[in-house]
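Subject: Sanity check before I submit

Could someone independently write out the structure tokens for this chain? I want to compare against mine line by line before I put it in a report. The sequence has 133 residues.
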Amino acid sequence: MAPGDNNEAGNAQIMHSIGQLTGSVEAMHTGLTARIEDIRKDIDRLDKASNARMDRIEDNLTKQIADRGEVMNKRIDGLDKNVGEKLGNLGTRVTALENEDKKMIEKVARISGIGGGVGGALAAAAVELIKRF
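---
Independent answer below. Compare away.
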């Protein structure tokens, strides 16, 4: 073997090793790129799933709030109706008491009038009796 042949074989071996190394690095790069893309897709799926879950939670909460609002409105309407009826009954009672008060005033006025008439008649009779004595 000539001294140049050994150098050429060594260079060929080095080039071959560099080629294998380059191929290995390219394969690792391709694999890492694929895994990174898979991770990105997983993150996107998780993000979409999380957003969908949040949307469902928001929809559920919105529905619950609306349902509670309807229940509260019904309760308030029932209370409003009940209070309205009680106020109406109270107004009727006040009117009845006012009418009763008027009747009492009329009775007192009549009795006072009769008492005044009787008192006046007694006074006139007393005056007449005093005149005769």
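---
OP: Matches mine. For the report I'm noting this point. The chain is about 100% helix and 0% strand.
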